[in-house]
Amino acid sequence: MTLRLGDIAPDFEAETTEGRIRFHEWLGNSWGVLFSHPKNYTPVCTTELGYTAKLKPEFDKRHVKAIGLSVDKLEDHYGWSKDIEETQGAALNFPLIADADRKVADLYDMIHPNASDSFTVRSVFIIDPNKKIRLIITYPASTGRNFDEILRVIDSLQLTDQYKVATPVNWKPGEDVIIVPALKDEDARKLFPQGWKALKPYLRLVAQPKKG
Predict the structure, then answer these.
(1) Any idea which architecture 13-145 has in CATH?
(2) Shortest CA distance to 128 belongs to which of 162, 98, 103, 105?
(3) Residues 78, 79, 83, 84: what is their CA dihedral angle, to the nearest 10 degrees?
């Protein structure tokens, strides 16, 4: 199954380290980050899960729930979580899906046979409260993800959903944003009475509006 931006994230039921869940029900009105791991007891995955646990206050501020997945059995997750806490200094504080039958991995196309026919690649899905997929990133197994970038994208999505703006290259929260080209100057003046800097008619920089 090929998923694209704007698609409804497939719903599923699964066993996790925090009990059995139905994904859409568990997500509720929150944003979600669903990310897969090639295998338990592997070094890169261990660092990623520890870092994600440390990011919980940042996810909470943005109304985001994180959930991980690997194609291992639930009992293996419990043992691995102890290693994560010991080596990374953070206990697992989000669910980790046990997907030994690869049901969820197949739903989300997380197994790429030319990379591995048995393990999931490092997939990331950002899902909004309407259950729509807003971002898809796929990393190779050898490369740990940049979760700071994932937070940055969430900040951009939440801001641009609220205002008629886009975020420029390497944007960080607090920096200037771009007024979308579809918004005419006369309408832009109502939304941005403080004015903007026009580098070109289609490239208008404005101070970042405050997120509501």
Answers:
(1) 3-Layer(aba) Sandwich (3.40)
(2) 162
(3) -20
What number does CATH give the domain 163-206? 3.30.1020.10
For residues 59 and 202, what is the distance between their CA atoms, to the nearest angstrom? 34
Whether the model pTM is above 0.85 = yes
What span, in angstroms and rounded, lies between the C-alpha atoms of 68 and 91?
14
d(CA 84, CA 185): 52
Set 9, 33, 34, 45: catalytic member: 45
Residue in the structure block whose two tokens are 């941005």 = 192
Q: What is the pLDDT of residues 54-99, one digit of tens each?
A: 999 999 999 999 999 988 888 888 888 899 999 999 999 999 999 8
CA atoms within 13 A on the CB side of 134: 19
- Rounded distance, CA 116 to CA 110, Å? 10
Let me know if 74 is a catalytic residue: no
Do 15 and 97 meet the contact criterion of CB atoms below 8 Å apart? yes
| ∠ Cα 51 53 54 (to 5°) | 65
Q: Where are the domains of the chain?
A: 13-145, 163-206
Task: Tell me which DSSP letter residue 208 carries.
Answer: P
Which residue in this structure is represented by tokens 């029900």?
A: 25
Nearest to 173 by CA among 197, 151, 190: 151
The tokens for 96 are: 């980790």
Q: Is 6 left (phi over 0), alpha (psi -120 to 50) or beta?
A: left
